[in-house]
Amino acid sequence: MGSALQARFSGLWRRLMPPVTVVVAAIGAGWLWLACNAPFIPVPPPENVFIRQTLTDGGGTTRTVWITQGKPDARAAGAKFYIFNDAFGAGVIVNASADGSYTAPPLEGAMGDHVFLYYTTPAGEDSESACRVLSEGDPAPHCP
Questions:
Q1: What is the pTM of this model?
Q2: For labelling, which of 27, 37, 86, 101 has a CA lying 20 to 30 Å from the CA of 12?
Q3: Are 62 and 55 spatial neighbours (Cβ–Cβ below 8 Å)?
Q4: ∠ CA 79-83-84 to the nearest 5 degrees?
Q5: Which long-range contacts (C-beta less than 8 Å, at least 24 apart) are formed by 85-88?
């Protein structure tokens, strides 16, 4: 009687073994893929400073513009920065250098405006968006 029961379980085991092996292998491959491909966790843009400049046109009219300078940050090396003044509805785009720093073209604005910044890495990953208050000071203050 023992050998008949053993034969029955042995046959059952042979039928279940291939599907079990496939499931175990798939789970293992999934864990390996997750371990080797950690998800990108967005980080905010590096600290920056705004520098006020006054421009005078040929007719003598003056206007204030702001230069945005980003501090070095290896995570933003070679990234493309997007800088947008919400109050004026205008912005600029600039490429960061190898150390992640940048100096953007002039941006129109007034003291106290909210400026939004984010960047895209060369691999196509976007940072978090950061809001800074347009003012002089190092670093630019975060929006309230």
A1: 0.69
A2: 27
A3: yes
A4: 150
A5: 85/109, 85/113, 85/114, 85/115, 85/134, 86/113, 86/114, 86/115, 86/116, 87/113, 87/114, 88/113
The single residue listed with the structure tokens 């039928």 is 15
The one-letter code for the residue type at 52 is R
3-class SS of residue 51: strand
Higher pLDDT pick, 61 / 44: 61
What is the enclosing helix (H) or strand (E) of 36?
helix 2-36
Report the distance separating Cα 71 and Cα 58, nearest Å: 34
Q: How far apart are CA 135 and CA 144, in angstroms?
A: 13
Average pLDDT over residues 28-43: 59
Tokens 């073209």 map to which residue?
105
CA gap 124, 110 in Å, rounded:
32
Question: Which residue type sits at 93?
Answer: I
Task: Tell me: pLDDT of 10 over 70.
Answer: no
Residue with tokens 């966790």: 41
